[in-house]
Amino acid sequence: MAKKNYEQLAKEVVDKVGGIENINSLFHCVTRLRFKLKETSKADKESIKNIKGVLTVVEGNGQFQVVIGNEVSDVFDTVLNMYPEIKSEAETKVVEEKPSGNILTRAFNTMASIFTPIIIALAGSGMIKAVLVILTTYGLMDKAGSTYKILSAAGNSVFYFLPLFLAFSAAKTFKVNPFISVAIIGALMEPNFTGLMKANGDMASFVGIPVVLMGYSGTVIPSILTIWAYSYLEKFLKKFIPKSIEIFALSMVALLIMVPLAVIVIGPIGVTLGNGMGYVINTLSSNNGLLAGLIVGAGWTYLVMMGIHWGVVPIMINNLSNLGYDVIRPMIAAATFASAGVALGVFLRSRNKETRGLAASSLVPALLGGITEPIVYGLSVKYKKPLIAQTIAGGIAGAFIGAFHTKAIVYVFPALTTLPAFFGDTFTIYIIGIIMAFTISAALTYFFGFDEGETTSRPAKANKSDLELVSCIQGEMINIEQVQDQVFAGKAMGEGIAFIPENGVVTSPIDGIIEVAFPTGHAVGIKSSNNIEVLIHVGINTVELKGEHFKMLVNQGESVRKGQQLIQFDLEAIKEKGYDTTTMMIITNSNEFNGVNIDEYRHVNNEDRVMNLIMKEA
Q1: Mind telling me which residue stretches traverse the membrane in this protein (predicted)?
Q2: Cα angle 439-331-304, degrees, rounded to a multiple of 5
C-alpha cells in the first residue's frame, strides 16, 4: 500500500469509529488497531469493513479491533502523526474508562495490552537463544568462550529481567508511574534479597512476619498482580500526599508498602498461580497430548478471531521460564501452517485474478512471519469452506504434534524463519506436523472448492440478460440524486437508483453471491459472475435501529437467484420511528463499466427491469 493511502485509510478509520473525540486510547498488535472507544455505538462497523485496506472488524474484550494485516504498524504510526491528540491521550492522560465485558474478557484485554509491547523483544531474544542451542549442539561454538557468553547475555536478558519489562508495561496499562513500578519489582531481583534464598521455599522474616522466599526471575504473574495492586495504592496516596513533597514521598511510601507486600503475599501467590496454570496445561498434554493438540490446533484460529488468544501467552512464557520448554506453541503452529495452506489451496483453485493475488501475497507473511490474519479474514472467513479446511487440518496436525509432546524452547511466532525455536528431540515431529497442517489444508481447500462470484464457470463474454438488473423492491423509482443523503446522492459509492418502497420485501436484482449480509439487516451486498457489485441499502441511517424491524434472509457467501427474497422489514414501524425509508440500489463498481443505462423513472414491481450495464471491451 502506497504511503499516501495510509493517510486516507487512517482518516476514514478515525472518522468511522466516531472521530477523535470518541477515542479513549489506541494501540496495536501484530495485525490489528485496537481502539478503546467511549461509545462503541458511535462506530460504524459495517462502513469500516468496507474501507479499502481493512480486512474486518472484531469487537471483544472491551476493544474495537480494526484488522489491517501486515501494514498495521504503518497505519498506526500514520494515525498518531495525523491525530496527535490520540497519542497524548493514550500516553500521558489518565482516562477513566468504564469496564466493559465480564471479568474474563477484561482479564484477556489486560493481558493483551501488557504483552503486546514486549512480544517483539521476547521473539528476537528468543531466536538468539534458539540459534545458540543449535551452534553449541553441533560444536560450532564453545559454551565456555566469551563470544557465546556475550551472545547468551543478549538472548537471556529479556527472559531474566522479564518481571521488569512486565512491570513497565503493566504500569502503562494500569495508568500508574512506570518508574516506581519498575523500582518495586526490581527489589525482588536485587542481590540483597535474592541472597537470602538458596532454594525456592526457603524461609525468612520481615519484622517478625514469616516470608516464603521465591525466585522471581523470568516469572509472569507476580509482576502483573503487584502492579495491579499498586495502581490502587497510588491513587489512594495521591489523595493525601501534598504536591510539594510528592516527588520523593510518593515513591518512598510506595516502596515501603509494596515491596514487603509483594515479598510476603503477592509474590508467592503469583508464583503458585503461574505454576498451577502451567501444571494444568502440561498435565493435560502429558496425559492426553493427542486431545490437547486437537483442541488447540483446531480452535486457535477462533480464539484469535475473538481476540482472546492473549490469555494463553502468560502460560506459555511461564512454561519456558520454569521448565525450559513449552508444549502449547507447537500445537498453535498447526493452526498457523493450516492457515498458510488455505492460501495455497485458494491460489491453485481460484480463477479470479484479485483472489489469486490476495492468496499469493498473504502466503509469504504467513510462512515467513506467522502472520495469518490476512488469510483468515480475506479468504477463510470470506469463503467459509477454506475455514472448515484449515480447522480440520489444524486439528489433525495439532493432535499429531500433541501426541508426541512436541516442545518449543523459546517464545516465537511459528514460521519457517523460527524453526530453530523448536530444535530438540521432538524437532522432527514438529517438522512433520507443520507439513501435515500445510498440505492437508491446501488439499482440502482445493478439493472442497468455494464460491467467489467470479468462478470457473464465468463465460468468455456476458450475455445481454446478465448485464440487466431488475427492481429489488415494489414502489416508486426515483433519481438517486433526490436521496436525502449526500453519500448516495453524490454518487460517492457509485451509480444507482432509489425507490420509495410500498412494502417490506427486498429481492435480488441479479444472480450472484452474497458478499456482505449486514447483521443489522438494513443492507446487503451482492456480486454477480460478471463482476457486477450491487449494494442495496434500506432507508437512511437505519443502521441506528441495530436490526430492529429487519430480518436478513440470506447469509454471506450464499448463492442467490434474481428475484429471491433477501430482506424483510416492517415499513410502517420504521417510518413511525422517524426514519426515511428510501431504498437505494447502487452499483458500487460502476467505474469498471463503460456505462450504466437507467430505465425511465416510474412505478415498478419486484423483478421489473430498471437498468442495464455496458461491459468494457477486453
Answers
A1: 114-138, 150-169, 176-193, 213-233, 245-270, 290-315, 327-348, 360-380, 392-415, 427-448
A2: 90
Quick: pLDDT tens for 175-216.
899 999 999 999 999 999 999 988 878 889 999 899 888 888
Contact in structure between 204 and 176 (CB atoms under 8 Å): no
**Whole-angstrom distance, CA of residue 90 vs CA of residue 110:** 15
Domains and CATH numbers, the chain: 3-101 (3.30.1360.60), 106-273 (no CATH), 293-448 (no CATH), 464-614 (2.70.70.10)
At residue 96, the pLDDT reads 42
Element containing residue 595 per DSSP (H, E): strand 595-598
Task: Kindly give the interhelix angle for 103-137 and 162-174, rounded to the nearest 10 degrees.
Answer: 160
- Cα separation, 307 vs 365, in Å, equals 20
Within 308-426, residue ranges assigned H as helices are 313-323, 328-349, 353-369, 373-375, 381-383, 385-403
Q: Is the dihedral of CA 254, 256, 261, 266 positive or negative?
A: positive
* Catalytic residue list contains 29: yes
Q: What is the pLDDT of residue 2?
A: 43
Residues 6+ apart with CB under 8 A from 311: 107, 108, 111
Distances, alpha carbon 302 to alpha carbons 138, 170, 222, 297, 339, in Å:
39, 26, 29, 10, 12
Are the CB atoms for 499 and 599 separated by under 8 Å?
Answer: no
Lowest mean pLDDT among 136-140, 147-151, 330-334: 136-140
Q: Is 345 left (phi over 0), alpha (psi -120 to 50) or beta?
A: alpha
pLDDT score for 176: 92
